[in-house]
Amino acid sequence: MIKEWWTEETTKLKGLSPAKRVKYIWQYYKLWIIGILALIYLTVFLIVRISNNVPDCRLYVVYANTMADVGNESEFWQAFVDAQGYDLREARVEFDAQSYFDYTKNQARGNSYYNAFIGLADAGMIDIITMECDSIKALGQCGRLIDLRSDLTASLYEAYADRLLYYEPEGGEPIPVGFDVSDSILITKYHIYPDSCGLAIITETNNIEDIAVFLSYILQEQKGNE
Fold first, then answer.
1. 3-state DSSP helix/strand/coil percent for the chain, to nearest 5?
2. What are the distances in angstroms from CA 124 to CA 112, 131, 144, 156, 224?
3. Contact of 225 with 188, CB cutoff 8 Å
4. Are the CB atoms for 179 and 215 separated by under 8 Å?
5. Rounded to two decimals, what is the model's pTM?
6. What is the pLDDT of residues 78-91, one digit of tens each?
7. How is residue 15 annotated by DSSP?
8. Residue 223 three-state SS
9. Residue 162 C-beta-side C-alpha neighbours within 13 Å
10. 202 phi and psi, to 5 degrees?
11. What is d(CA 122, CA 144) in angstroms, rounded to the nearest whole number?
12. How far apart are CA 130 and CA 4, in angstroms?
């Protein structure tokens, strides 16, 4: 079956000009191409990490869809690391502000940043993702955001019950998948989004204690600035 498909596709391509070949391949196989590139990126990332003996990651936060300077080595990153007294020789703290995708638009299909996010999330490398609140609610459909009622996050679910954001599946009960942290320093001090900020925890996380520390930090710091 694969041989027949290959013969048919190569026959089609032989009859096309170079420009039309490129257009045909991109039109029909762009999702495969993007997926393969995302897989290559993840593989290279893991190889470099292992070969250079990079310390384990204590906390990995993705700040999606922002132009604010909140990535690694930023003022915010440094303030957080210093406040917790983290020894980065023992474990890293990763703040990634270079991801741009909108799940409300065609479920982010064909977006290379989204494909990379899925790969890292499924590998258990990401702990937290932030977006505007409506985007967090929509992203709940992808299955990578933890149901906050689970045993792992039960204490956070109770502590921040007044901040819950829900994904509402068609025909099903709403699922709490995030927290509204629009009044945190992420907005009031660092202005990462113009209107609102939602925070969600990735299903495969193993760093729930540091997630709790991060939540407390961004909200307690805001209280101190009031």
1. 50, 15, 30
2. 19, 19, 10, 20, 33
3. yes
4. yes
5. 0.75
6. 999 999 999 988 89
7. T
8. helix
9. 2
10. -75, 140
11. 8
12. 46
User: What is the per-residue pLDDT across 173-191, written as a single tens digit (0 to 9) for each?
Assistant: 999 999 999 999 999 999 9
198 and 180 Cβ atoms separated by less than 8 Å: yes
**The two structure tokens encoding residue 82:** 């210093």
Question: Listing from the earlier edge strand, what are the strands of the sheet with 128-131?
Answer: 91-99, 56-64, 128-131, 198-201, 175-180, 164-167
Read off the tokens for 21.
Answer: 């070949």
Quote the CA–CA distance of 59 and 130 in Å, as a whole number. 14
Alpha helices in 85-199 (DSSP H): 112-122, 133-139, 154-159, 185-188
Which ranges in the chain belong to alpha helices (H)? 2-14, 18-51, 75-84, 112-122, 133-139, 154-159, 185-188, 208-225
Identify the pLDDT of residue 145: 97
CA distance 141 to 57: 27
Q: Which two tokens stand for residue 161?
A: 């019950």
